[in-house]
Design brief:
By secondary structure, the chain is an alpha/beta fold. It is built from 9 helices and 7 strands, in the order H-H-H-H-H-E-H-E-H-E-E-E-H-E-E-H. Helices cover about 45% and strands about 10% of the residues.
Length: about 290
């Protein structure tokens, strides 16, 4: 570990909490009180991600195992990108996901340059939130949705499914094994409610989605495919939560829709949907939904 690496390292564990400095400079007209706490959960989560990045940096410098360090960084990056897609916008998440790369041959130097790139993006975003919160607050054309101003822990897992009852096993797994709140069309009476409003409520209340695709509709070719409402819900939640937080549980043998390749999917055979539970649990832990 050379001194050269240390000069290129930005210690994000000591990054200033920018929102605590609001209005501290001469001529500043915007204070933390001006936002009446509405963006506070965003600031707190950004601070947490930046602090976690600093810990990854420090651990990498203490250890000779840079493979583990890069794995930690990749998992952190996945969690952060998924949160950005939900809390700010899919565009910000894509910009973040595309940052980083191979900058140097030395593993430690490359890792530190990647952490600098990711951390700098978060700090700039935080500065923009501080400088112009009105651009991000809820309203026409805003980036921040009202639901994401609540702490992530208050959110639920949405289950989308067809007529098959296999989804209820997933519900039991999530509620009993992981103590998560599950929402679905069966969660409450929907009589008199428009489907668009119901889906909007689900999109606002969920921080993670599980879509169960089972063969139920017969095509002209004699094959079976998933109910089209579930395919639609898959697209909705992937657009809102990001691809990492909308997981497809796919029955083997069903007809695939055109753009399923490359999406996060876990397959099972017959009625053995429990075959997906181990991998689903890993994804929940990776995304920070469960400890």
């Amino acid at each position: 570990m050379g001194r050269r690496h240390k000069r290129e390292r930005v210690d994000f564990r000591r990054a200033p909490s920018l929102h605590c400095q609001a209005g501290s400079g001469a001529g500043s007209h915007r204070t933390r009180n001006d936002m009446d706490g509405s963006l506070e959960p965003l600031f707190e989560r950004l601070d947490q991600f930046v602090a976690e990045l600093g810990e990854i940096q420090a651990a990498a410098e203490r250890s000779e195992d840079h493979v583990i360090a890069f794995e930690r960084l990749e998992r952190w990056k996945g969690r952060c990108a998924a949160w950005l897609a939900t809390a700010v916008s899919p565009t910000e998440a894509r910009r973040f996901s595309e940052a980083g790369g191979v900058f140097a041959r030395n593993p430690l130097e490359n890792l530190l340059r990647n952490t600098n790139a990711f951390g700098s993006l978060l700090l700039v975003l935080r500065e923009e939130l501080e400088g112009d919160p009105g651009h991000y607050l809820a309203g026409p054309g805003s980036k921040v949705r009202p639901s994401v101003l609540r702490p992530l822990s208050t959110k639920a897992v949405f289950i989308g499914h067809g007529r098959s009852s296999l989804w209820s096993r997933v519900q039991i797994f999530l509620e009993h094994d992981h103590k998560l709140t599950v929402v679905s069309f069966e969660s409450a009476s929907r009589t008199g409610e428009h489907i668009v409003k119901v889906l909007e409520d689900f999109l606002d209340s969920a921080s993670f989605a599980v879509l169960v695709l089972t063969g139920e509709d017969v095509t002209a070719a004699g094959t079976s495919r998933a109910r089209q409402n579930v395919v639609h819900e898959a697209g909705l939640f992937q657009g809102r939560l990001g691809f990492n937080r909308a997981v497809l549980l796919v029955e083997e043998g069903i007809e695939e829709f055109s753009n399923i390749d490359g999406l996060q999917q876990i397959r099972f055979t017959g009625d053995g949907i429990q075959q997906t539970f181990y991998e689903l649990g890993r994804v929940l832990r990776r995304e920070g939904i469960v400890a």
